[in-house]
User: Fold this.
Amino acid sequence: MSFIGQSLVLASLFFAAAGAVLGFWGGAKRSLKAWDMARQAAYGFSGTMILANLAMVYALITHDFSVKYVAEVGSLATPPYITVISLWASLNGSILFWGGVLGVYVLGFIWIHGSRHREYMPYTLGMILSVSLFFALLVASVADPFAPMNPVPLDGPGPNPLLANHWLMGVHPPTLYLGYVGMVVPFSMICAALLAGRLDNGWMQPLRTWMIIPWSFLTVGIVLGGWWSYGVLGWGGYWAWDPVENASFHPWLTGTAFIHSAMVYQRRGGLRIWTLVLGMATFLLTLVGTFMTRSGVFNSVHSFTQSAIGPVFLVFIGVVLVFSVLLLALREHTLADDEETSDRTSMMTALLGQRYDVLSREFAILLQNAVFATFTFTVLLGTLYPLIAEAMLDKQVSVREPYFDQWALPLGILLVFLMGVGPALPWGRMSPQRAMKRFGQPALAGVVFAGLVALGGFTGIWTLVTAFLCGFAFVANFGEFWTPVQVLRKKRGNSLGEASAKVYTRARRRIGGHIAHYGVLLAAITIALSKGYKEERDFTLNQGESAEFAGWTVTYHDAKLIDEGFRNSVTVNLTAAHEGGRSIELHPKMNYYPTQREPIFTPDMYTGPVRDLYASVIELPPQGEYVVVRLMDMPYVSWLWLAPFIIVFGTAVAAWPARKKKSSSAAREAVA
Amino acid sequence: MTPRAKQRLLAVVALLVVFGTLGYLSTQSMSEDLVYYWSPTELVDKGDAAIGATVRLGGMVEQESVDWRPQEQHLSFRITDGEESVQVAGKGAPPQMFREGIGVVVEGKMEGDGVFHTTTVMIKHSNEYQPPEEGEMPTEVYKSLQTEER
Assistant:
């Protein structure tokens, strides 16, 4: 299996190298033949890389310990599901998986665009395959997971216990990888536009869609990561501004900014260079994120691996950064000259916003972009500061959570505010009187919602501000759909269904965006409530003893040791009831893996619509006569896990290619 | 200089000024939330000068120094780097996995009483997983809790 795997990787290396050269050649010389061959090479790369991944999965399932990676992360006792997901249990496997995901994206990209966009496609493919070449090189050299093992061990240690401890580990990493890796595509498309010296709406539209696809995966991946952290790590939170969490947050921030600024680009021809910078920065930040998570520069829970890949990766990031800056500096003018008036689209006007009316959607997006840029910068600085301090001042230092919180709170609130104001404003301009009129209903809704939240006992000033803005933004967004529906019903006598369908087909993109906003609003209010009103206390309970906590009565019964084959699980049996309600069972555990001295403490939680009760074992003596347990009561936290799916549903509604339009444009192309 | 080059230069300068200001503001706001890592030796060397400063103290939990009273939720232990050791006291349960000989980082302040009062005790995760030794197997430790195989 070592030989097969290594051969596949070498073949993919060859295909990537050949395809990259052919792509650029085909782009520069406008050679159809080179472009065709580049496409073939791309298929070759995807096929061999995906096969190499399958070969590794096969080696894992068959416990082929002659393969080094299998010997490192496999074990005979590990259940099949966890054996398969061990593909990304450790560094070398995850780099191979990076390559595999890249292969999937390359396939999808060619399949969707095929022979259209002749001007841009060869360059794009050349760029994607250049990045692929780097990853194929990594897999073939320093990160070779297929290296043979001699002598062949009889059994392996099994994967990192944290991976084996929760089913979400089979979903969260691939989702995040789909988010990270996919950013190669918009990056390459931007480079292609710069190389071609043109970026029209015909290319901007697919470019934005190709940003939205990985961005959606990233959104889901980030929240699933929080959910995993909440479900496994036992500290009762979902976000700690850990470097690894921040690593995935940076590209999400710039990606979100891009998705919005691209609208200004398409609608008004503004924010041109800025939009491209955001798109390029997003890809760079995913590389930085991969580096931060995978090189072990941070000593955090996720950084369980260290190797020579770190320095190589750092050099690659440097190369991509220099390439991007040079490309922008040298080619930026070609895009501006495309328009009839070059000064209109310059960086300066875009930055200062002098041609923006304050009461316009584009101005709201401009502000939103500024907030996102600030957010990215401050989080990035806080994340990297310990590294900078250690490298420059030789001091070990860490940045505590309050730093991040103190920036995230005002910036987050500002974003929710803009999310309400922006969609209610039209492109272009609006008179202040009309604007005020438009904000009446949303403001009323905000007051009502803040009132409800206050009645629920959540009376912190920032909570109420957040609640007001969430209510405001919800109605402001919904009004964009509801008002035209009402107009159609009154003026045309349409039924509610007819009118809704009409408005939907007419403004599907916008409505999708609004749905995504609803998801963000849900996240904003649940974060405000669950973070701000969490109660937490440790209890020492004897068998049969009960504790009163935040309206809950929690009783400790006993503990049991259960042999699950690949692990031993010490399970603590608790029952709980909220204010005399029905009794629920909680079973926080200590899971002992054969390869590890310390157990993994796995919390258990009751998930309810109004509140979660979270229980985590701290200490259990050998006889189980008492237990020290940490209890947490978190209001409304369960709704947070729903938010990314609403966001993704919204973006899918917005970004789904329109069937009619597509066929008509295809027909037009056929005629031409 | 062409007008276009001038404009570009202006834009770059403007960006630098904006991000420079932002960087300054961020690092300023960070200073309160920066926590330095000290070893017990560094802490002891500073003497009285160390009193009152919030730091993270990293080292090993000294053998036979742990006094944890679950009923009172009181924890005390000594933390050592092999040369010096410091007495640490805290309220609340120690973290999961806490044990003698394990690497820990505690955050808190040295008080006038010569005791380091901590608010957070964190386990320093080592990257290597060690298999349990003789006598540490869960099947032996939790013998009396054993049930039949599932």
